[in-house]
Amino acid sequence: MRLRLADPAATEALGRALATPMADACVEAPVVVHLAGPLGAGKTTLVRGLLRGLGHEGRVRSPTFTLLEPYELPACDVVHLDLYRLADPGELDYLGLADMLAPGSLVLVEWAERGGARLPGADLRIALDYAGTGREADCEAMSPAGAAILAARGMPWQ
Prior knowledge:
The chain has 158 residues and is α/β, with parallel strands linked by helices. The chain has 5 helices and 7 strands.
């Protein structure tokens, strides 16, 4: 499903709308979301909205240089990964990827293609791209958990 996002506020609103169904889905198993798109397309803006929707009030940093930013929230534990600077997929082992994939966790991955086979498949894939002065978001369920997230009531496309 393709959504038109007029500005950064709309991108953040999409993240907020996804927060509750993602938190609900990750109770029994980790939820993995792959965020795709060129530099500056709004991946971290979407993550900011999602974290705000989960109750995070602090700063949301892009993990471009640190590779990961963890957030312990009441609804679930969130790890935001940015693999843009990953030199080798094997580095994911050193980052503790296996520990991040516990029930009750939400793993948001920018530049997932750089993780290769070491990175688990996505439950949900969101591709952001430029569209004139705004953005477009293509949301695709890749698992039953991803389908449940997109089917949740109150989503912007319903």
